[in-house]
Queue: 3 jobs
Job 1
Amino acid sequence: MLQRSRRRCEGTAMGAVVLDLRPGLGIGPFSLGMPISEAFAQIEQQPSIYDVVHVKYYEEDPLKLDIVISFPDHGFHLRFDPWSQRLRLIEIFDVKRLQMRYSNSLIGGPSTLATFVAVYALFGPTFPGIYDRDRGVYTLFYPGLSFAFPIPNQYTDCCHDGEAELPLEFPDGTTPVTCRVSIYDSSSDKKVGVGSLMDKAIVPPLPSGSLFMEEVHVKLGEELHFTVGGQHIPFGASPQDVWTELGRPCGIHQKQVDQMVIHSALDPRPRSTLCADYFYNYFARGLDILFDGQTHKIKKFVLHTNYPGHADFNSYIKCNFLVHGSDLAESFQEVNDSKQKITTSTKWDQVKEILGDCGRAAIQTQGSTSNPFGSTFVYGYQNVAFEVMKNGYIATMTLFQS
């Protein structure tokens, strides 16, 4: 698990923040189902509150474990599904550091203990929870919300057959204090808590017609097809065509000279810092479109996977592309066999099995030798080039016409 930190800024006292608790929906500005880019946007808007932020992910296989944004000073973290990069679970792991507001009442933080009796009084009656004897933890469930309480060894008999009388109080008159709070989507009616119960939290369904993670079918050498909106964007389309189909771009910038042009014997032009070509950036679709500066026609598409561990992470929302076909020498053809499809989850070894070995890679440093994530490798085929990370996952896929 690799961890990246932001530098602390002065001005926020530990435990000073108060966040609204919304069972089954979220906490403060963070809502279940939100893309990771929106979470980072909220963090950037309030730097005095979220001044220490850790980003954790599994570098060797970023699809295996959650991407986690952690706020150690405030005692909670956000867990994002690694494939969709949407928020699936919010965990308050140190309730004494975070004060929560629910129904005009406060709970947690350094001044208000989140005891079993206090939780029961604030959130009301519920069904008996689950006692995990191995962990010594009793979990109380509400829709989209759970509270975990450590049970001392001498009081385990209070949890009869995995259940307990509510509200839970020990024979000495004390009551356990919450050690963890979980906030999760309640639509699946699953109980989510600590340990294996944590894995049961799923991402809320997207609204009907949502364009987030829209599947984009790639017809090599010909076009992109957006499956939700139904748009077709072919090579050779004009900027007006793209505006009509995809709307206003998020950004427009002039292209720097292609560093790979030195390898082309067919292009004797001297290198310069800028060229006449220009990009339309659709960050919310994970897409860049390159136009020829002379003809003003599309000449390239760049599709981004937005994997953590890449220099462009969080600059784009993940493009959910799908490439059919196994023989680049032939025209595009749809193949039903999933092994003959290239998606954002396809690793480089699988690409080589489908397309064949293209030989040695060009090494790319993302414009800076000081890039903390290291170099990537670019492999070229007819009509397509793959930028591959050291862990074997595709960072970008560039489409062009040979």
Job 2
Amino acid sequence: MASMVVIQHKQPSSIVLSSSLSDFNGSRLTASIQYKRAMKQPKGAMRVTASSSSKKILIMGGTRFIGIFLSRLLVKEGHQVTLFTRGKAPISKQLPGESDSDFADFASKILHLKGDRQDYEFVKSSLSAEGFDVVYDINGREAHEVEPILDALPSLEQYIYCSSAGVYLKSDYLPHHEANAVDPKSRHKGKLETEKLLQSRGVNWTSLRPVYIYGPLNYNPVEEWFFHRLKAGRPIPIPSSGLQVTQLGHVKDLAVAFVKVLGNEKARQQVFNISGDKYVTFDGLAKACAKAGGFPEPEIVHYNPKEFDFGKAKPFPFRDQHFFASIEKAKSVLGWKPEFDLVEGLADSHELDFGRGTFRKQPDFTADDIILAKSLVLT
């Protein structure tokens, strides 16, 4: 079935949400998303700066997670922003803590190009007709998905790609740096091949490699996995010692980094790791989630994954290894730094999403019960 072009403005809906939360010392922390800076700006507010010139920007994707926050920043800076999606989800919806006026302004300006990026002929014809200056590719997974975009836009000023720190070759020497060896066999090899394609085509490209991303509206069960168990008052099953070190970056900090590279000559044909400032153990993450959500400190049960057959059930949302990356290059070259520390970021996510009763997936404790049943027998 042929794809259809729909360039349209969306009308605002009517949900208004705001929030605050208690920190683990009993004081109050502001956890609402703010888009207009007040005299004293709350922690984690979405910061924007004046843009030197307006760009005609295409975002591939933009209605699930990263693009929702990125598109708002770009519109605030005065750019003309179009989302390329299949049209299965509204291109604008009011976010928790977002004012009516801010949402109405965004919804009146965001544009939509409806189509399937796998329909390469449609991509070429529609993008060529529109003539975008900049492309943000948020949902690209394979290099062959990018070629039609480059073919359609020979005068493209910049291609900004969302890659992944998962492209790095597993190593005993951490953190991962941008110049470290990559793994051509990783499950993110398509992203690695896309970076190689961009380099070979000689375009002005920039690639960001997040580690684990978290925050409101997260569709991956990162913090949500812990919140479900904490809310149910269940023990937290964590593989091996629980001392495996990992790293999380807040989605709003990632969105700011994406804006920082726009039109930035220092970002030309460069790769940047983007994540939080601190590393955390699996056990520490469970405790941080509890603090962020106002739950009691959890009971943690360690298990040996090799002793179990979980079938199709996924027992844990993180790779069972040390996995973290240096963000010093982004800080020094781009002048970017994460605004959220881990507990504050998890509190922001909980208060604006899970704590309101909204989440992406229902809890599945199948693997937990297998682990806990064996643990009870051993004790």
Job 3
Amino acid sequence: MAVIPRSDPPSRIHPEPQQTLGIDHFDHLPDSILLLVFNKISDVKSLGRCCVVSRRFHSLVTQVENVLIRVDCVISDDDNSSLSSIKSRSSASGPFSSIFRLVVGGIVKPLQALGQFLGARRSCGSSSSSSLSISGDEGGEIEQGGVTHHSPTQVLKNFEEIRYLRIELPSGELGIDEGVLLKWRAEFGSTLDHCVILGASSVIQPNPMRVSQAIVTTTVASDDNGSIPESFYTNGGLKLRVVWTISSLIAASARHYLLQPIIAEHKTLRSLVLSDSDGQGVLCMNRDQLEELRVKPLSASSASKRTLVPALNMRLWYAPTLELPDGTVLKGATLVAIRPSESKKEASDVSWVSSAAFEEPYEAAVKMLVKRKTYCLEMNSF
């Protein structure tokens, strides 16, 4: 029988064993790079989730310098036992109500490691209970439907190196009518440093077909020479602006009072901003102002939980109608610049007013209003 020679079977190429299988590439990144990533994340809830990934992440998250806290709901100190005391929107609370304690929510109970990182204390009640409860006076937690909420003070407890802190409320404290514009920006040290308030009785949104015409209109000098019309004093216009001013100052001083424990505990802070999702009000404190509060304690109002507002000097600018470069029209546009009467800064210097960082088009409104006639007012401490 003939033997048919067979060729050697074709050689097969086998991949080399994957040497990197099971290796965590994050282990090769230095801590400084991971900290850059965590600082970019900044959101405290996302950082809390990062901290349960590994022990290394847990230890690095506590060293984050840039932190953002978004507050989910607000709890009234006057009625802690009532479910109706939860205010997810500020429309139900007026500016003259008592100070509200902020609560950061969204921490689900099964993530116990996350809860421990945030410094939360476990509630004695059952997590399945539908009732709402608050445990503790400072930095307490709230349970509802298996979700635990924590105050900003409690959330920040284990952060050691915070330098830049931003806290965002779910909405502004001032309930205003639809169509009314009211914005404020305040800076505090141990007391009010200055405050800028921009308001308008109504806002007419721009018509794209009229934008070019609006730009021309705003460059032409007004024929009212910037004077306030007599009707402003007789139809309640001035009284309304006074209410706006007092309400904004109360909201700002209440926020300032709330920040005391955070500022005292975190000595590394260089900048603190407390704003709201509506863009209604912004409270800012820089490094020098934070240090001033630590050295010189604030004076609290005897009437409510807020910082005492000192005697004030105010400058007011008013325009019955103000047409902005983008075509937006403000009816009854009003700008109020406020400083304490005892301020050592030159009272006639209003250059700082134009630098108030309102978003456009309202920054343009501020710059236009300060060119008009100035009216001076005074207000006693309250």
